[in-house]
Sequence to fold (743 residues):
Amino acid sequence: MLLSIVLMSACGYCPAGMLWWDGSRDAADAPPGKLLSDNDGYFGDCVLTGVTYSYETEPTNPADIWRDDASRYGRRLLDGRPAGNWWVPVGVNGRPLTVVFDFQRPCAFTELDVCSRSRQVGIEVACGDGPDGPWRPAFSGPREQAPDEAFHRCVLTKGAEGRYLRVSVDGGGISYVDEILVWGDASADADIPEDYRPVVPPALPTEIAFSGIPGIEKTAFSDARFWDWQREIGSHSRQPVVWWRVPTWSSITDTPLLPEAASITDSVQITMARNETECVALALTNTSCEAPREVALRLSEFRAEGGAGQDTLGGGLCVAGAIGSRHYGVNLGPLLTADNMPGESLLRRYLTNGAGISAFPRVTLSRAGSAVLWLSVTSDGTPPGRYLARLSCGSGPALIVRVHVLDVTLPAPPVWLNTWSGTTSMFPFVYADRARREVAYKQSLGISVWNGFPEPETDAEIARRSGRAVFHLYGVPDKYVHGGYAGRIEPEELGEEDQQAISEHVASLVRRATELGLDYDDWYGEIWDEPGPGNSALYGALAKMMKQADPRVQVYCNPCFWSGSGVLGDAEVYRALRPWYREHVDISVPLYLLLRDRPRSYGLFDSPRAVRASYAVSTQSAKSEQAPQVQAYRRMAWDAFSRGWNGWGFYSYYAPRGNPWNDMDADWLEDRPDYLMVYPGPRGPIATRQSEAVREGWEDYCLLTLLGQRGMDAEVERILQAYADGAEPEALRLRALQAAAGG
Fold:
């Protein structure tokens, strides 16, 4: 599968076990049952019980309310936030906090976990069949015997069963409870179904019609259109399913998924270098409108034409999930692998086609419906030649995958590629190999910048060990970053005390970098994010102080100059940055909008320095199938190479505003979107076409660099001119690859 191939080659040994949110480790490689309590942030197997809870004595310190709004119920015990600001827990003074959970169905309970900032707490748990008992003891832990910890895992007595759980937490003075999790198993049938509460409600049937992908209205077609299609494809209609190519880097579900006869195929061709990943989007369509069809997908190993297997050439297969968004409707988004599939119940909640793909690599095609698949092939020093693999689908026709590996090895130029975000996670635990999987996937995309120094057991440290990495830090003390300086003082108000504070801070960074074996070009210092017209002069003054403290320290700046009416004009940007930008900035990353028709400010950004880059704010692009938003991440690399620059960036890889799987949930954040292009799975990141496009761009940049290294400047110029004239990067990549191979 896609991630497995990348990770097994990049991670090396990946430890087993689980790492819980509080840092405790567990040798087990699975939780103590299915999650029954529907806590936010968990993406594994669960039963959506529809659990509710009530208090025997209502908490008042704090109350269970939404943020600080007393009129709204908070549901804080299940919100997936075990620690944070003052409003996160609930509490009661001078007595235990007692909660009764109603799971709406009979359950078998195995473990109950309590997160409490009261730390040393007594816990009593009992189960029952009614809201008032009688209660059967399931766990007893006196406070005086409890460890001084924020996380308490209570293994319940064998045979703890019932519909209700009564939980009492005694914190001594104030009894705080941040979160409660309940594990076990529960029944779900037609009489007591799971509480799916789908994010996108199923469409009501109004006529005889079918959907290519359930929930995506753009793929709907009438029964008459389907019968016409069957006649149009001729003998193909006698096959149970048909294979066909859909756009890899453009819109897929903007029309009904009914291929023309000429589009139906029994093979695909991929041409690639000896060390890259190439991807193809495919569709598999049910030729019957009378019944769903279940198919079992299997991708064989690659073999040389007429020869033995080739273990340096790996293939992966994903299935695309259909996910709703506030602004783009329902589109194909997450590319799901069999080894990193969220729990079936959660797929039904978040994906409109979740029921049909939850058993992947077995897929159930709806009547006249389709599944969109993502085939990836990764070469790792593969010898030049032609190779074959077989993608089978049970009793249906197989698809032959033909791969031509050219005698081309891509270089790895030192590129600055940043996302200003961390990696995905899961609550209340992550599997012990998750960090390595996360880092391996980001590095496979070419991402090279990591937040913070590579301290032990951080993503940055893993990145440093497994490939080139650059580290992003704050170059001034926190009071200048978050202390309101940017809005309260003028540059001339800075004095010797400020220079001393900054000098000490810079010296401490240099010392730690030296201790970690880092050179000056391995890290840099930011002052604050996106300086604009009101604070750029102060930013410049602080950058000068950083340079006075140590001229070798690299200063970063990502000017924005955005106002309510749009990006400021060239003259205003140039006037604000000219006094200091060229002299004091080493890592230059302006908002890409500042590069449009602004010759004077562009001259500042284009002046020689360690890194010349630009960035874009990607917002919800990963939730759109509009071709420009799928391709944007690839084009950023082409734009950088066209300018002769060595970096680019986008916000963001993963910075959700609420539940990353639910685009409808963040009403209190002023309708701000989820800034992400990957989704969190139980084992690691789940790719999208947008994230895969980042890798394509990075590999294109490497390929163009190779042509330059070989002195093929004229061909590079012709390719770049074709790009400027509107040619698609995919066609230009193939042209460049063939040129590099000598033909």
